[in-house]
User: Which sequence fits this backbone?
């Protein structure tokens, strides 16, 4: 049985080295080593990324022009931004899986470089032969770095300390997700030997190799003595949390480290994380990812720079469309409507007017097929999504983003908020011109609750997975999804 939920790396970090002061010191030492290794690994990937190009230019006696210097600088910055999103340098994966992950990260960098070259019209100033050689040789060298780093980490982990034995006690999905993550983590100073599932559900799950199942406390006690177990994880669902004290009291007299793993996944989580404040552990269950941080700065910068550039480039198209709208029927070229924005704020969204001017209703009615309110030019604008272009002004003003949940009318939000779980969670990030729901085909009219629920699920997934790389992926896929049979 496959478990879809995953324990975040913050929780694993907080569970790795519990115990006495000596173990805490050992934990800090290992974490320091891990941090050093991580920076060294990043440095090796950067060197492997740029070195083949420098060497090739030198050997071929090709002039190391300003264009190639810019290329190396931009490539290095992109690697620093994109590689962590793929887990490169943070999660060591060997074999074919590690090379596939590396290929995806390096391929993304190359695609972005190609896009930059196309937009800035500088691609003609560099040799195609040099670029192909660089792309292939750099990936091969980075592959060697990946293999080397994984082997060094495993060897260091093996000789750094004697690994103690540990078991997991509890029930439910959290037990087996934790077991899977522990078995695949080469940095843990322990090895998992057993899972004690008091719900007797272990037969429905695949345990890692070398991990056995036991089903009662007597067998657990015997195994602790026989295998010299030194650490026990208690992982219980929230409804079984009252049994935590019982489990703890049964184990506390043994010479064991005892760690509690709360099953927070029984909540409807939104951008959850684990922190510490003045020595107190804090588990954030619901939080907007857009308050602060480097990634948020990157998103805001990308939004406003791209919006400004697109407004300049598309200004002839927008002026032409505005004239066509104005001539198609009486009324203004632009349509403004109040929408719910980020974290309870409201704003006026801009669109090209696609309907005949009419008296607004208390409950805004969604456009339907053959809607008589839509003008001839409006039908084309809505079908092609060109009516959304003025929202670039909203992005430039900062009340919208290029990517995010689409802003619904206030009346729609009032209607759906008490009918769909987590509906208003959509407003924990800035609304966007396009989003994950749109590239998956959820555009236009939502004829029933089920269709809106599917759209909301996509929006919540976007918030939980959000990263600049995901925004870029959605932006690249959006042009291929613009023509929709459901967009009326």
Assistant:
């Amino acid at each position: 049985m496959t478990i879809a939920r995953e324990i975040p790396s913050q929780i694993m970090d907080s569970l790795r080295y519990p115990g006495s002061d000596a173990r805490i010191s050992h934990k800090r030492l290992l974490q320091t080593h891990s941090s050093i290794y991580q920076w060294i690994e990043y440095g090796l990937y950067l060197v492997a990324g740029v070195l083949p190009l420098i060497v090739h230019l030198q050997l071929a006696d090709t002039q190391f022009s300003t264009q190639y210097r810019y290329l190396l600088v931009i490539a290095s910055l992109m690697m620093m931004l994109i590689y962590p999103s793929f887990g490169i340098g943070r999660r060591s994966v060997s074999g074919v899986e590690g090379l596939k992950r590396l290929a995806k990260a390096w391929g993304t960098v190359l695609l972005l470089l190609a896009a930059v070259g196309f937009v800035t019209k500088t691609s003609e100033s560099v040799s195609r032969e040099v670029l192909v050689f660089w792309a292939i040789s750099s990936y091969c060298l980075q592959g060697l770095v990946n293999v080397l780093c994984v082997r060094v980490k495993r060897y260091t982990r093996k000789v750094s300390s004697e690994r103690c034995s540990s078991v997991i006690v509890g029930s439910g999905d959290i037990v087996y997700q934790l077991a899977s993550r522990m078995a695949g983590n080469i940095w843990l100073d322990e090895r998992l030997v057993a899972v004690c599932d008091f719900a007797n559900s272990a037969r429905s799950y695949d345990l890692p190799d070398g991990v056995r199942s036991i089903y009662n406390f007597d067998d657990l006690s015997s195994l602790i003595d026989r295998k010299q177990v030194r650490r026990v994880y208690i992982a219980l669902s929230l409804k079984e949390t009252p049994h935590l004290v019982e489990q703890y009291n049964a184990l506390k007299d043994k010479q064991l480290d005892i760690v509690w793993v709360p099953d927070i996944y029984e909540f409807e989580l939104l951008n959850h994380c684990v922190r510490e404040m003045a020595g107190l552990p804090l588990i954030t269950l619901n939080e907007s990812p857009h308050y602060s941080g480097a990634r948020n700065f990157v998103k805001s910068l990308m939004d406003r720079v791209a919006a400004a550039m697109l407004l300049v480039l598309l200004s002839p198209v927008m002026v032409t469309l505005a004239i066509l709208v104005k001539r198609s029927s009486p009324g203004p070229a632009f349509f403004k409507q109040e929408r719910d924005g980020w974290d309870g704020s409201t704003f006026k969204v801009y669109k090209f007017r696609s309907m005949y001017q009419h008296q607004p209703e208390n409950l805004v009615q969604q456009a339907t097929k053959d809607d008589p309110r839509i003008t001839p030019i409006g039908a084309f604008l809505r079908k092609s999504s060109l009516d959304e272009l003025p929202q670039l002004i909203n992005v430039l003003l900062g009340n919208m983003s290029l990517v995010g949940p689409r802003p619904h009318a206030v009346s729609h939000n009032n209607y759906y908020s008490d009918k769909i779980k987590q509906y208003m969670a959509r407003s924990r990030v800035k609304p966007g011109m396009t989003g994950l729901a749109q590239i998956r085909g959820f555009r236009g009219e939502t004829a029933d609750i089920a269709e809106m629920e599917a759209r909301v699920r996509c929006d919540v997934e976007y918030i939980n997975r959000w990263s600049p790389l995901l925004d870029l992926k959605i932006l690249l896929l959006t042009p291929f999804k613009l023509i929709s049979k459901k967009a009326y």
Notes: The chain is about 50% helix and 10% strand. The chain has three domains: 30-159, 162-284, 294-481. The two ends are 42 Å apart (CA to CA). Residues 1-31 have pLDDT under 50 and may be disordered.
